Amino acid sequence: MWKALKYILLLYILMVVFAFFFYRVAVFLHFDASARSCLLSLGGIISFLLFICIVFANKQVHWSTNSLKPSLFVVVCIGLLVNLLFYNTNSNTGVPDSLPMGLLGVCLCFVESCVLCPIAEEILFRRIVLNSLLANRHFRYKPIWPILITALLFSLIHISPARYAHAFIDGLFFTWIAYRTKSIIPSIVLHSFNNFYVFMIRAISNNYFENLTTAISKIPYYEYLCSLWRILQNDVIRVLICVCLLFLLNRFLNKKYPKDVVVPEASRQISDGCE
Which of 111, 155, 178, 198 lies in disulfide reach of 168, CB 3.0 to 4.6 Å? Predict the structure, then answer.
């Protein structure tokens, strides 16, 4: 577990150091707010890339396609529906509250928040941290505790206290999926979707894609689709649908990924497309 904590500290230090460095550079050069946002996104990209390279260099992850299964596609699809219904754009954890102006800034923010951030965080929490906890003899027959602790640590790395609750719920869902499928591929995809969804919402609300917004409004039955979406935004309906989807997902996982009757040491190690 100490090894996992060292990797958490490493990622946090990289993020803080590069964010502070690029912020100081932007202030020194008297950049405007948009240029500062671009530099901060660049700092995030560098920190996530460095972390991923360090993890692979230390042989914590070995990328492979051996664990890719068609059933993972079904898990991802159901998970995406749950995320889409559950999601609240005001409580997102991975995308800045305001996006930088200009094509370069938007692209940098997209790469940071929708590509590298999910990969780095899922490798850290659902691969390194969860495996370390599952290997602990105190939790060998109680996987609920590694799942809860992993989700808690995942939420705490998000600096804003206002985002802790949402990050914890996301962390529970991602960790449960990784534990049941023994793969971090579904959690990477779902994490990326979360961040991409709010990225697009904030981009469209700030008129970054005016042509796209116009094109969407011309889709046949657009008004009916909007009405249906507003109905689905009702909290009671959303909860009921999410419960049904989670029930179906659990049934599917029980069929394709049956639980171990006895959980021997390391039998629940998360291998991923990362072995």
Answer: 155
For residue 96, being part of any structural domain is answered with yes
Residue 162 domain-assigned (yes or no): yes
Label residues 63-93 b or e (16+ Cβ within 10 Å = b). eeeebeeebbebbbebbbebbebbbeeebbb
Using 50, 70 and 90 to split pLDDT, how confident is the model at 264? very low
Count of domains for the chain: 1
Range(s) of the domain holding residue 141:
62-256
When pLDDT is cut at 50, 70 and 90, the band that residue 271 belongs to is low
144 CB-contact burial (10 Å; exposed 0-12 / middle 13-18 / buried 19+) = exposed
Residue 103 forms part of a structural domain: yes
pLDDT at 153 over 80: yes
Closest CA to 257 of 71, 65, 63, 67: 71
Stretch (H or E) spanning 47 = helix 33-57
Cα separation, 49 vs 215, whole angstroms: 35
- ∠ at Cα 108 (106, 109), nearest 5°? 65
Q: Is residue 20 part of a domain?
A: no
Give me the residues paired with residue 63 across strands: 274
- Comparing 264 with 113, the larger pLDDT belongs to 113
Rounded to 5°, the CA angle 108-121-79 comes to 95
For the record, the structure tokens of 136 come out as 């602990």
